[in-house]
Amino acid sequence: MIALEAKDLKVGYGKADVLDGVNVKVDEGAIVSLVGPNGAGKTTLLLALTGLLPARGTVSYFGEPMANVSVEDRVARGLCLVPERRELFGDLSVSDNLELGGFSRWMRGERQLRESLEEVFERFPRLRERQDKDASTLSGGERQMLALGRALMAAPRLLLLDEPSLGLAPLIVREIFHIISRLRDNGVSLLVVEQNARAALEVSDYAYVLENGRVSMEGAASDLIDNPRVIDTYLGRRQAY
Amino acid sequence: MDFQIFFFLLEDGIANGAIYALLAVTMVLVFTTTRILFVAQGEFVTFSALTFASLQIGLVPQIIWLLGLLAVIAAAIEIYRAVSDKDFKSIPGTVGLYLVAPFAVIALTIWIAPLGAPMLVQAAVSVAIVTLLGPLVYRIAFQPVSSGSVRLLFVIAIALHFVFQGFGLLFFGAEGFRVDPMIDASFEVGSLIIKAQAILIVGTLALFTALLYVFFGYTIPGKALRATAVNRVGARIVGIKPDLAGKLAFLLTAFIGGVSGVLIVSSTTIYYDSGLLIGLKSVLGAISGGMVSYPAAIIGSIGVGILEGFGAFWASAFTEAIVFSAFIPVLLWLSLRSTPNEEGHEL
Ligand SMILES: Nc1ncnc2c1ncn2[C@@H]1O[C@H](COP(=O)(O)OP(=O)(O)OP(=O)(O)O)[C@@H](O)[C@H]1O
Ligand SMILES: [Mg+2]
Predict the structure, then answer these.
(1) Which chain B residues are closer than 8 Å to A91 by Cβ?
(2) Cβ A42 under 6 angstroms from ligand 1
(3) Tell me: the pLDDT tens digits for B223-242?
(4) A88 interaction partners in chain B (CB closer than 8 Å)
(5) Which of A190, B51, B120, B323 keeps 20 to 30 A from A97, CA to CA?
(6) Least CB-CB distance to A99: which of B220, B231, B237?
(7) How far is the alpha carbon of B157 from chain A, nearest alpha carbon, in Å?
(8) What does the mean pLDDT of chain B come to?
(9) d(CA B194, CA B263)
(10) DSSP code of B316?
(11) Where are the domains positioned within chain A?
(12) What ipTM is given for this predicted complex?
């Protein structure tokens, strides 16, 4: 089954198109990574897939067209985003942020969010320690964990992660990618945007290279990791990992 | 001025201020969750006050027809949307949500109006009518433009104020109404007289403050409203629909406006056009908290009430002038202190 398929996606912020006919596909249970230089349109692509930006072209999620489905209804169906800017609720406590991550499940009448909260705290013990603190007081790494934990509370089927390792210490980066591959083992499909291309490719099944709003290369992650052009541009300097 | 008069004015001022505080809290709630500076809130107060007064003299309040009309319009909009999205499954739920409650309240009102029902029942019906108006008004007037600028939303709120005031004149006439205090009693503490109605009003403020504290701090819908206020994008990506939050905020606002209306009409004569000043004074209160802080809004509003009480005593013709000019320094200070929104975008 295909978790997500976008065809000929065109997105702009006004004048020129930032994405110029992008095709991407995520198989169910796969980790797909998306690499590319700054300004290539990676964040734009994730925002369009979530429905936060209007897009031309088609997006289907587990076979269903998403054209008339709102952001909130996509989340309710398990299509969840961890945005680049994290978008946490700064004035709310860490545990309130997590609890609200399960809002769409609560709306459906699910009341056992406590267990999911417990699972997130087990994954991120640091968040348990800080559960009563306001989200705005967290460090960069803790914010990342909170954003990921909040998305997990929605019981996602497909997670879109925008730079999950941004600004994190190497040890935590490794931990984050470990969590990403464990999520895949639990049946979650993932589309991961990463600057840390080596770390991403190592856990991924498939990968796309996005340049200037177009897919310039794609293939099995194990092939791209040995591709000379990819090595030169994205893997050249051995990154801290 | 002797101490007795001073205390009398203070008591009156605090009671009025408590009403402004209730309303100011709703102003902050609506503004932070929807970015609407809802100046027409005063009309919810007068509608409820005048509905209550009409019921007390055994008349069917004509405002029920406005409720019926808005319910039908809102249901029609939703059905039209459902049909054009081919989302037929949602139609029965929509009809239930938008039509059943309003028409049940309309029927109840017509039934109890001539009966001379107990005062509390009449108060409850008045509050119910106004409460239902809240989400309908949001659905019809604001939801279609909910992502518009703060300015656009404000202009709509002002327009609504005038439309509502027109309806107020149509339904209730130009005559003022006042009803007997709900509890007509007073206590003497030494040489001071404390009116039970004042205690009722301040007690209501205390009760609502406590209820809202629990609602925002300990329930999921309350936290969802706060989340929408602090980060709209964040709220959307956890599945909180801004429009649902908007309707909930308007429901709460109209409810509190309705309660304030039945309280205020037993201490002040209310006319169809009293809403403007009531609304503006609660805006003053809300602004002293920068439109975001609930405690500051409550304190500011009590200040407005006290100032108004003493102003009326010293120079009654200038009461409003005194109240509003006293806030000029507050506004100046706030505007000097405020820095442009960090991200540079509009709130
Ligand atoms: N809100 C916006 N308004 C106008 N242009 C924008 C906006 N957001 C992004 N852009 C432009 O769209 C292009 C793609 O931006 P995008 O954020 O998608 O890139 P990215 O691949 O995520 O980059 P990075 O690696 O730096 O995160 C850039 O040229 C950027 O300037
Ligand atoms: Mg980006």
Answers:
(1) 226, 230
(2) yes
(3) 999 999 899 999 999 999 99
(4) 231, 234
(5) A190
(6) B220
(7) 27
(8) 88
(9) 16
(10) G
(11) 1-78+156-241, 89-155
(12) 0.92
- Give me the mean pLDDT over the A139-163 stretch: 94
Amino acid (1-letter code) at residue A3: A
Q: Is A109 exposed, middle or buried (0-12, 13-18, 19+ CB in 10 A)?
A: exposed
Q: Which of A 108-147 lie inside 8 A of B, CB atoms?
A: none
- Tell whether A240 is within 8 A of chain B (Cβ): no
In the numeric block, the tokens 């020129």 are attached to A16
Cβ-based contacts of B237 with chain A (< 8 Å): 50, 52, 71, 75, 80-81, 83, 87, 151
Give dist(CA B267, CA B259) in Å, integer.
14
Tokens 């820095």 belong to residue: B339
Neighbours of B290 (CB within 10 A): 14
Q: Is the dihedral of CA A100, A104, A110, A112 positive or negative?
A: negative
Closest ligand to B233 CA?
Answer: 1
Contact B239 A154 (CB under 8 A): yes
Looking at the whole model, is its pTM more than 0.90?
A: no
- For residue A74, CA distances in Å to A51, A70, A188 come to 8, 6, 15
Quick check: B241 contacting A, CB < 8 Å?
Answer: yes
Rounded to the nearest 10 degrees, the angle between the axes of helix B3-34 and helix B275-288 is 80
Specify the residue with its C-alpha closest to ligand 1, atom 17.
A43
How near does any CA of chain A get to the CA of B101, in Å? 21
Quickly name the fold that domain A1-78+156-241 has: Rossmann fold (3.40.50)
Identify the CATH assignment for B3-178+188-340 out of 1.10.340, 1.10.3470, 2.60.40, 1.10.150. 1.10.3470
Q: Which of A74, A107, A114, A120 to mutate to test the interface with B (most CBs of B within 10 A)?
A: A107
> Closest Cα to residue B154, out of B139, B165, B167, B141?
B141
C-beta pairs of B2-11 under 8 Å, 24+ apart in sequence: B3/B191, B4/B191, B4/B192, B5/B313, B7/B192, B8/B193, B9/B306, B9/B309, B9/B310, B9/B313, B10/B306, B10/B309, B11/B194, B11/B195, B11/B198
Query: Which H/E stretch holds residue A216?
Result: strand A214-220
A83 close to ligand 1 (CB < 6 Angstrom): no
User: pLDDT per residue over A82-123, tens digit each?
Assistant: 999 999 999 999 999 999 999 999 999 988 889 999 999 998
Maximum average pLDDT range among A92-96, B117-121, B149-153: A92-96
Closest-CA distance of chain A to residue B72, Å: 25
Q: State the Cα–Cα distance between residues A241 and A219, nearest whole angstrom.
A: 23
